[in-house]
Recover the amino acids of this structure.
């Protein structure tokens, strides 16, 4: 394929919206939470079996979660997994800086 034949399209900040999936903001937020869970597990050097015990999940469930299969997990459940890993979770609601619609985001 020649470079001249390739069409490049700039995506948004949300790949789930770009793919046309329903409720893309929720999918993006869940993906960010799962990314944090994965990072904590790796930083602590936990094996999936050890993480499963801490999280109250089976090892296969931890494996599926960390591979991105998190559709069946609610936001609340993912937040509980973070607290099970010893993290504090704060939810802050603030005024927007502009007239745009509000947004959801994860900060660490």
């Amino acid at each position: 394929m020649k470079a001249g034949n390739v069409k490049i399209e700039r995506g948004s900040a949300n790949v789930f919206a770009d793919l046309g999936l329903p409720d893309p903001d929720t999918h993006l937020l869940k993906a960010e939470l799962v990314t944090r869970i994965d990072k904590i597990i790796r930083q602590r050097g936990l094996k999936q079996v050890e993480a499963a015990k801490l999280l109250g999940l089976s090892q296969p469930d931890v494996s599926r979660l960390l591979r991105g299969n998190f559709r069946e997990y609610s936001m609340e459940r993912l937040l509980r997994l973070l607290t099970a890993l010893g993290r504090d979770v704060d939810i802050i609601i603030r005024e927007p800086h502009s007239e745009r619609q509000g947004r959801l985001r994860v900060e660490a």
User: Anything to note?
Assistant: The chain has a mean pLDDT of 90.
